[in-house]
Design brief:
Blueprint (H helix, E strand, L loop, with lengths): L1 E10 L2 E11 L4 E6 L5 H8 L12 E4 L2 E2 L5 H11 E4 L11 H11 L4 H14 L15 H13 L5 E5 L7 H18 L2 E5 L3 H6 L2 E6 L2 E2 L2
Parallel strand pairs: 3-8, 3-9, 6-7, 7-8
Antiparallel strand pairs: 1-2, 1-4, 4-5, 9-10
Helix pairs in contact: 3-4, 3-5
The structure holds adenosine-5'-triphosphate and magnesium ion (MG).
Amino acid sequence: MIRATQLHKYYGDLQVLKGVNLHIKSGEIVSIVGASGAGKTTLLQLLGTLDKPTIQNNSSLYIDGTDVLTLNDKDLSKFRNLNLGFIFQFHQLLPEFTALENVCIPAFIAKKSKIETETEAKRLLDYLGLKDRINHKPGELSGGEQQRVAVARALINKPKIIFADEPSGNLDTQSAEHLHQLFFKLRDEFGQTFVIVTHNEELADMADRKLVMKDGNIMV
Ligand SMILES: Nc1ncnc2c1ncn2[C@@H]1O[C@H](COP(=O)(O)OP(=O)(O)OP(=O)(O)O)[C@@H](O)[C@H]1O
Ligand SMILES: [Mg+2]
C-alpha cells in the first residue's frame, strides 16, 4: 500500500530524514515511536504527501500504486482527498462551522451526496460519543471533543490509509481506548491501513508492527 525508498529531508543544513525505506501492506496497522525530534512527524508528513522529500538518487514514494512524487499539486490534492485521512494532535477544525459540517466537508469536496454524507457523519459522531454535540462549533467543544470531531472528519471518505500523529494525545484514558478500538474495528471492517505516530506505549504495542525511529531513520 505504501512503498517508500530513500526518503531524505533536510531543513537547511539539518538532515532530519536520512534515507528511510519503508513498506506497509494494505490493512496493516503500523505504529511509529521514538524520541522527540527523531523525525516521526516529518516522516508522516512525507508519507501523507503533505510535504515533499529532498529528492536524492533513488528517492521514490508509491501509494496504492501511484507514484505520488510526480503528481502536480492539483492531482495530489485530489489523490489526498480520496485516499488519505489525517488525524493530528492539533486538529485544525474550521471554527465557523459546526461539528457536523466540519465532518462533512471532505465528502462535499469529493462531491458526495448531502443526505448520505450527513447520515454517515452522524453515525461516526455518534460512535465517538458526540451525539449531543453535533451542532456546536469547535469553540464550544472541549479539546478532547474537538479531537474526536477531527477523527470523524478523517474517516468520512473511508480513506484507504489513515495517518495519525498522536491521535489520543488530548484524550482521557477511556476515550483514548475507545479511539484505539475504533482503529482496529475499521481495519477489520474496511481493511483500512493505519500509520500511527504515538508516545502511547499501549497503542504502539497493539499495532501489527512497531517501528522505532532514531536519528532520522528506522531502526532494524
Ligand atoms: N519546518 C521545520 N524547519 C526546521 N526544522 C524543523 C522543521 N520541522 C521539524 N524540524 C526539526 O526536525 C527534527 C524532527 O522533527 P519532527 O517534528 O519530525 O520530530 P518528532 O519525532 O515528530 O518529535 P516529537 O515526538 O517531539 O513530535 C527536529 O529537530 C525539528 O526541530
Ligand atoms: Mg512529532
